[in-house]
Design goal:
Blueprint lengths: L6 E5 L5 H11 L4 E4 L4 H4 L2 H8 L6 E6 L7 H12 L3 E6 L18 H9 L3 E4 L4 H14 L9
Parallel strand pairs: 1-2, 1-3, 3-4, 4-5
Helix pairs in contact: 3-4
Length: 154
Amino acid sequence: MTFETKNIYISYNHTDQYFKDRLNKIIGEKYNITSSPQEYSIKNNVNKYFEQLENNNEDIVIVLIGTDTYKSKNVDWELEYGLSHDSCIIGLCLPTNDDYRKKTVNPSNLPIKLVNNLYSGYASYFDWTENIEDLEEYIDITYNQKMNKEAIMF
């Protein structure tokens, strides 16, 4: 898989801006990165939000899983958009999340669309890393595992 040509969308809750910025620095030179629109009028209107997302062409959606990510309607919309456009979906558990570096994950702390696609094998879930080689491996694993899977939209 050629990583340099991949478009990545970073989905995150606003409280995890630090990790979004860190991830952008780590992978931003090798990938085309976009992330959540910040305009208030867009963030609260699903139709305008989807119009904004239509300007993007993501191969991969990385969802930063912090403490409150599962509560975010915008993350839910971004997952829905990514799933409907056959994007790879990767959940990255942040160090701020209680499940970070644990062998088992509490599904009630994850966005439901991510949980459903983890169970189906369409999406992947990993712990946060700042190692570019690990991140590239996560992308490769997720890309290969979704090849014969169907996204679950609900």
